[in-house]
Amino acid sequence: MKLYSLDLSPYAARVRISIYAKKLPIEIVAPPAAGIKSAEYLALNPMGKIPVLLLDDGLSIPESETIVEYLEDAFPDPSLRPHGPEAAAHVRLIARVAELYVMSPLSALYPHLDPARRDEAAVDAAVARLESGMSYLETFMAQGPYAAGDKFTTADGQVTPTVFYLNAILSRIDRLEVMARHERLSAYVRTAKSDPVLAKVMGEMADGMKNSGR
Ligand SMILES: N[C@@H](CCC(=O)N[C@@H](CS)C(=O)NCC(=O)O)C(=O)O
């Protein structure tokens, strides 16, 4: 089995977290040299996006959430998804809120990373939307230390890349105080740095950022 992945991709990072936490013998590879829009790669994922999981029988599975859920079904031990339906819904809700209401408004800040091209009014509006999303996420996250409580779950796979990107982007636009206003998310950064799997993936994302020159 192979995972097509890039260090910096938050979607691929989410899947790598499951792979490392479950200690799965899945080869992690870069996309083909011809790129993710090449015919070779589009045959694996017609949407031309990272990540894709390629099974040994040739079946390919795109979309990070679908891959993470597949890994839970195919390799249930150790489980990163709680067993009761309500607890499983809680874990899925945290991941979904982080993706839709935090990662999505965060991407609205990308055009403003360069101070020379920054529109402060647009940044203020995007940060206001982002802070609403961060508050929703904190409402659903448990007291910790992990995203859904005292156990490492698939929610951590989504929340870790989310806090990595929050810190990286907010520091680039000189708005790190936003992070400080969200104590639960700030505390989660400490959890991610102290857990071996989450820290490893944070390190890979930091390397990816350094190598991308961003
Ligand atoms: N919903 C997808 C999003 C994947 C995605 O957007 N990946 C980025 C890399 S971080 C990508 O491949 N972008 C290239 C493109 O959209 O053309 C998932 O969860 O896997």
In short:
The chain has nine helices and four strands; from the N terminus they run βαβαββααααααα.
Instruction: Give the helix level as a range of percent.
Output: 55-70%
Q: Tell me the domain tally.
A: 2
Count of DSSP E strands? 4
Structural class: mainly alpha
Shape: globular
Total count of helical runs of at least 4 residues = 9
Low confidence ranges: none
Kindly report the CATH topology of the largest domain: Glutathione S-transferase Yfyf (Class Pi), Chain A, domain 2
What is the multimeric organization of the chains shown?
Answer: single chain
Main sheet record: 4 strands, mixed
Give average pLDDT, whole number: 97
| Helix and strand pattern | EHEHEEHHHHHHH
> Can you list the ligands bound to this structure?
glutathione
CATH architectural designation of the largest domain: Up-down Bundle
Strand content: 5-15%
Strand order of the largest sheet: 2-1-3-4
Query: Terminal Cα separation, in Å?
Result: 31 Å
Summary keywords:
214 residues; mainly alpha; Glutaredoxin; Glutathione S-transferase Yfyf (Class Pi), Chain A, domain 2; four-stranded mixed β-sheet; 4 strands; 6% strand; binds glutathione
